[in-house]
Amino acid sequence: MTGFDREKTRRDVLQLGLSATAAAFAVPSLANAQATASGPYKEAPQLAARVRAGQLPPVAERLPVPDDVLVIKPTERVGTYGGTIRSFMLNEADWPAPQNACLNYGLMMFPRDIEAFGKGMPMRGWEPVVAKSYSWKDDATQLTITLRKGMKWSDGAPFTSEDVMFAWHDVWFNKDLQPAPPSTLLVDGKSVRLSAPDESTLVFDFPGPYPTFIFTALRHSEIVQYPKHYLKQFHPKYTPSATVKDFLENSARARNIVNFPSVSPWVCRRHDTATITMERNPFFYGIDTAGNQLPYADAYDFPMVGTTQNAVLKVVAGEIDMGERNLQFFENLPVMKENERRGNYKLLFYRGGSFAQPTGVLFNYACTDPAEPELRDLLRNKDFRIALSIGIDREEVRNTVLLGLGRAASYALNTTSPLFDDEFKKITMINGEFDQKRANALLDGLGLKKDRGVRRYANGKPVSIVLDVISEFTGYTRTGDIVIAAWRELGLDAKVNTVARSVMQSRIGDKTIHAFVFGPDAPEIPLTRIDTGPFNLLYSGPGIYRPEGPIPEHAKLLEFHSKIYAEADPAKSIQLHKDMARHVTETALNFQLATDLPVLIVRSNRMGNVPEVGLSLQTFIYERPEQFFIKA
């Protein structure tokens, strides 16, 4: 990893970025994944051996009924069975790595053709996965889901509507296990009602129109992570000796449990301090177009490597077949690009977004730092926030930290988003142009006069602000340095506070925080994060300023939020998104520094059926990893 011309490689990457970004943001011209199988079902040799030994039923009995089998058209060709896909994770705290790579399967998922999907969003165009099909009432007050008849959990037990009813009634609406149900299961404070007329039908009835329900509740894997037959032994309702603690420690909330029944292509078979290994689910409900039960790969391996630097070393050494999570740090891009041939891999650029890209600045409106009691009112003043935004040279961040990739923006929406058009492009740069003169004028207008180059309150105290950044990632600290330098240029007493990622997450809600850097969550499809998580850059996380109540700008944002939740018409939904984005940028509730950044994918040259371009919203599943295979 040494001995190369970093500046030359950086120039190569800049040139690469122009073409790679365009390629990554092109809509893949792939055939419909719902292809048709031909011929009798076939299976992996290791499963066939278990059938012969009487350890498994025949493959036809392990799949759903023929009309309900999921048929997946391979990206390139019908693959071959065998081998282990090598990936990695950092440590135990990095438990989402295996989940995002190969396990995050819900009732629905986004289709590969996001552009076409956008035309029917939010109700139409979904690709059924665990579900076989779905249908809406025209007024969006009822959604019917049809499950796959004969589908099974990975241990062979039937997967039916009863499992979803168990998750719904015995977990999410069980006050002993969960004091309040998830907000995504409520409409105006009233519960969504779920019924199951039979074992393969689910009917969701909404108190009012809820056309975004698939976005908020059904595309996530959690709704299909509660096998009733298995979890009853830990649930106090069904096993009197069981406790709430027993259930929480043994349910889907405890991630990557060995032999926990799953409906994903792989099942956790090993989990220790060194690695997590997922092995083929013998009852997976999908096949390829030749009738081969998927997945092709025997296993998916996630050794714990400790640091991102160690992960890059493994990439360069050719020890990673598929990598995404924890590789989204552009400071490593030159090294990984330089060593493609040596490591026998190719660096791909997918469309999407990653939290790892240090492009967002968020404010804590509940700030009550006793050392800076005056700052709270400033953070709640839009002129102050606008000054902080336009006082930053986004092109400096883009060229210095992001290797010239992407484009400067005050709002994260990629040009490839189905919502994007010329009007949205203008919105994404409101209060994003570098303008120190205007920034200084806004600060002057707030009465923050300069004294010997430092702005002060009326009482003479310097105006101080601290920006928290994650210490493990160089890109974050470099972005923090640029932002703080820009704010100092405006006369603010600005400082960086570098903290570990785990500490940053634990500090969300800490009223002494002033502001922090984080990445975008949903630059392709904003509705993927219409929840109000504290890291979200669109909805700005109301949890970080409760119980004091929102500022007026946030109250208006929540009005947009509610309207988007309830709007079924695609054109009207897009317009609401534009109005919401304009509100965010005009008030600088929070702001971005860049968007249109590619997601970096490491793909070993021994891997087949991995698309050259694709969609990655922090997970591989949209490209169907069950049809990835290891070439002979």
Describe the structure.
Strand 7 (186-187) and strand 8 form a beta hairpin. Helix 20 (552-566) runs antiparallel to helix 21 (570-587). 30% of the residues lie in helices and 18% in strands. Mean pLDDT is 87; it is low at 1-15, 17-34 and 530-548. It is an alpha+beta fold and 632 residues long. The two termini are 29 Å apart. The strands form ten sheets. Strands 22-21-23-17-24 form a five-stranded mixed sheet. A four-stranded mixed sheet has the order 2-14-12-11, covered by helices on one side. It is built from 21 helices and 29 strands.
Beta-strand fraction estimate: 15-25%
Categorize the overall geometry.
Answer: globular
* Major sheet details: 5 strands, mixed
Decide which structural class fits the backbone.
alpha+beta
Mean pLDDT: 87
List the helices and strands and how they pair.
Blueprint (H helix, E strand, L loop, with lengths): L5 H19 L20 H8 L6 H4 L7 E3 L11 E3 L9 H8 L4 E2 L4 H7 L6 E2 L2 E6 L5 E6 L13 H12 L13 E2 L2 E2 L1 E6 L2 E5 L7 H6 L9 H4 L12 H7 L15 E6 L3 E6 L5 E3 L10 E5 L4 H9 L5 E2 L9 H6 L1 H4 L1 E8 L7 E4 L11 H5 L2 H9 L3 H7 L6 E2 L13 H6 L8 H10 L3 E3 L2 E3 L7 E7 L3 H16 L3 E7 L1 H7 L7 E4 L33 H15 L3 H18 L3 E2 L1 E2 L3 E6 L2 E2 L6 E2 L12 E2 L2
Helix pairs in contact: 14-17, 20-21
